[in-house]
Structure formats: structure tokens, C-alpha cells
Amino acid sequence: MARVVIYTTNYCPYCSGAKALLRSKNVEFEEIDVTDDPERRAEMERLSHRRTVPQIFIDGKGIGGFDDARFLDATGELDRLLGISPN
């Protein structure tokens, strides 16, 4: 299974949605809460070139946020990136 890291804040509904999507696929992920952590937020911005949360990384590659993940899910690409076999 792929290594998944998601940068979040504790007040972001899109972060909750992204985590729910990953959980619905039984994917384990590392959550990095940047709510009160400017150093980790700066790290996220450096890695993703984006300032918004969530930012999702699969095996070190940024895929974007919740809307991006939903689009990839709709096309089947998210499962491929996660290493999930089609049913």
C-alpha cells in the first residue's frame, strides 16, 4: 500500500472530507496538523507550492486537496495511486 500524508487544520471541512474519503478506502495515512504549527505549514507550502489545506501526498507526490482527490477517485486514478486493486 502507498504511503499517504495529509496536511490539515482542525477547522477545515475539506480536510474532514479528504480524511473520510481515505478512510472509506481503508487507507492508513499520516496526518500533520498545521493549525498552530507555522514550521509544518511552511513545510507543506514548500512541498506542495500551495497554501490551502488539505494537501495530500501519496508516496511523496502531491496530488492536491480534497477536490483533486475526489476527481482522481471518480476517474479511478486514486485507487491506482494508492495501490488498491479494482474489484
What do we call the CATH topology? Glutaredoxin
Shape: globular
> Number of DSSP strands?
4
Q: What would CATH call the architecture?
A: 3-Layer(aba) Sandwich
Level-1 CATH class name:
Alpha Beta
**Main beta sheet:** 4 strands, mixed
Which homologous superfamily in CATH is the superfamily?
A: Glutaredoxin
N-to-C SSE series? EHEHEEHH
Q: How much helical structure, as a percent, in the residues? A: 40-55%
Biggest sheet strand line-up: 2-1-3-4
Secondary-structure class: alpha+beta
Oligomer: single chain
Number of spatially distinct domains: 1
Mean pLDDT: 96
Distance, first to last CA: 16 Å
Q: Spans with pLDDT under 50 lasting ≥5 residues?
A: none
Supply database-style keywords.
87 residues; alpha+beta; Glutaredoxin; globular; single chain
Characterize the structure shown:
This protein is an alpha+beta fold. It is 45% helix and 20% strand. The chain has a single domain, classed as 3-Layer(aba) Sandwich (Glutaredoxin). Strand 3 and strand 4 form a beta hairpin.
Reconstruct the topology from this structure:
Layout: E1 4-8, H1 13-24, E2 30-33, H2 38-48, E3 55-58, E4 61-64, H3 66-75, H4 77-82
Parallel strand pairs: 1-2
Antiparallel strand pairs: 1-3, 3-4
Helix pairs in contact: 1-3
